[in-house]
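[job 4471] stage=fold_predict status=RUNNING
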Amino acid sequence: MVTVRDYIGNFVPDKTRAQFRTWLRKIVQSRIADQYRKKKRNPLEQVQREASSDDTVTSTTNRIPDLNEVELDRLIDGKLEQAILTEARRLARDHVRMEDYQAYDLFQIQDLGAREVGISLGISPVTVRVRALRVRRVIESQVRRLVNLLEQPNRRDLR
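[job 4471] inference complete, writing structure tokens
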């Protein structure tokens, strides 16, 4: 509601663009997404909360998972997915405008709010989201391309 209060003055009724309820729904969806993004920001927070709620103190060495118990495939898949995403972001940076990538980096990667990013870049929060979406689409396209390259049957076997 605070966001609506802050931006209601900027809303201009225009039947060719959108209705008020569409504008309002988009603000609500964005705020909800921001909250989920903030909760997922630091996965170690959950571990720290669980550790602090225990009555007993566990040494650091006891909290390190035994690799025999960890599903090695899942661990490798996670590293591969992260490597693919990193490479896709690097490739996307060469295919989008720097202003768009800067908004994406601050909003998606550094997890700042659209309003904060907008103030820092001198653009509206809506423009921040639009620019981030443009970059996300390019990154998704690069991810698909990289995955297709990895899945080609005639690629070299690394064994």
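[job 4471] summary: The radius of gyration is 21 Å.
[job 4471] exit 0
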